[in-house]
Amino acid sequence: MSVEQVITQKLNQSFSPIHLDVLNESNRHHVPPNSETHFKVVVVSDEFESQRLISRHRAVNGVLAEELANGVHALSINAYTKEEWQALEAVPKTPNCKG
């Protein structure tokens, strides 16, 4: 199973998301072709109700601790409640790699 698939599976199991995007952005960085080292996650879940942003990020990082310790170099987390997601005009764009 690819790292992207593992991340998707773990986030689905842990947060029962209303919406989930797991984007492999490794190709935007200076890594070998077909790398799975840089990801952007957009996760919308009722689990995030009444949680501060830092708590949401800690929860996602906790679920993906194994991946972060074993090859995932960067993880951009966009964690929203259903209400926040509905009010959002666009997910923030990932900045270009400067390296």
Short description:
The chain is of the alpha+beta class and 99 residues long. It has four helices and three strands, in the order H-E-E-H-H-E-H.
Which features characterize this protein?
three-stranded mixed beta sheet, globular, 20% strand, 99 residues, 4 helices, alpha+beta
Write the layout of secondary structure elements.
Layout: H1 3-15, E1 19-24, E2 38-44, H2 53-63, H3 65-69, E3 74-80, H4 82-87
Q: Can you describe what's shown?
A:
With 99 residues, the chain is of the alpha+beta class. It is built from four helices and three strands; from the N terminus they run H-E-E-H-H-E-H. The longest helix is centred in the N-terminal third of the chain and has 13 residues, at 3-15. The radius of gyration is 13 Å and the shape is globular. The chain starts with a helix and ends in a 12-residue tail after the last helix.
Q: For the terminal residues, how far apart are their CA atoms?
A: 29 Å
Strand order of the largest sheet: 1-2-3
Helix residue percentage:
25-40%
Name the helix and strand elements from N-terminus to C-terminus, one letter apiece.
HEEHHEH
- Average predicted confidence as pLDDT: 91
The radius of gyration computed from the alpha-carbon positions, rounded to a whole number of angstroms, is: 13 Å
The major β-sheet equals:
3 strands, mixed
Multimeric state of these chains?
single chain
Structural class: alpha+beta
Task: Please tell me what the overall shape is.
Answer: globular
